[in-house]
Specification:
CATH class of one domain: Alpha Beta
Helix content: 25-40%
Structural class: alpha/beta
Strand order of the largest sheet: 1-6-8
């Protein structure tokens, strides 16, 4: 029960402060209509447990929340394969659970998945073809789009899904060292653009051209 309460605290720190605000009567007059939709940016998941006294080296907001998080099952096995960024584990079931949580907690609002994707590590010495054959990203999108499809089957009102990102770009503090795009940008040769295998997969998937383009929803 303590671990469940800790997980609930973590979700409230991530989602609740957006979706559970308290309003005065004056505020309510300005906000008569129901929320239009929820835009969900989702990349990864962790297992959360209760920790009344987190270790000093823990990130400060975990200390405030009195939680610990792990990326391993109790058996020691990782909950998902890691992408390029240290924080990004590939955990498709996590997005389904998150969407279903929103459905139950907030009376099934309209949801758009506004960001979802994974990154590769940039290597200026590597040939372009190495980046174009991004099979890990293809499998990422198959898994996550499939999990969203399962959430819709569960009853979620998901209206749209946006992959992050169409192009490789400047990624926050990591700059150009991480590549999230489904289209490769050649920074050394006039910013020329080359569709990756994931872009071709998306094209086939959206056009329903091949059986392989369908997400795995089992």
């Amino acid at each position: 029960m303590e671990d469940q309460a800790a997980a609930a605290r973590r979700i409230d720190f991530q989602l609740g402060w957006f979706l559970d605000p308290k309003f005065s009567e004056k505020d309510r007059e300005l906000m008569r209509n129901k929320i239009d939709f929820i835009g969900l940016n989702h990349y990864t998941s962790r297992i959360i447990g209760n920790q009344p006294n987190p270790q000093p080296q823990e990130i400060h907001f975990y200390q405030v929340q009195q939680i610990e998080r792990t990326d391993k099952w109790s058996s020691g096995e990782a909950i998902g394969e890691r992408a390029a960024s240290e924080w990004l584990l590939i955990v498709p079931w996590g997005i389904r659970k998150t969407i279903n949580y929103i459905v139950k907690k907030y009376e099934n609002p309209i949801i758009y998945v506004t960001e979802n994707g994974m990154d590769d590590e940039d290597d200026p010495s590597a040939p372009v073809d190495q980046f174009l054959n991004d099979t890990k990203r293809v499998n990422f999108f198959k898994g996550y789009v499939g999990a969203v499809a399962q959430a819709i089957k569960d009853g979620a009102d998901v209206r749209g899904y946006f992959a992050w990102s169409f192009l490789d770009n400047f990624e926050w503090a990591m700059g150009f060292t991480k590549r999230f795009g489904i289209v490769y940008v050649d920074y050394k040769n006039g910013l020329t653009r080359h569709p990756k295998a994931s872009a071709m997969w998306f094209s086939r998937f959206l056009n329903g051209e091949t059986a392989d383009s369908k997400p795995d929803t089992n």
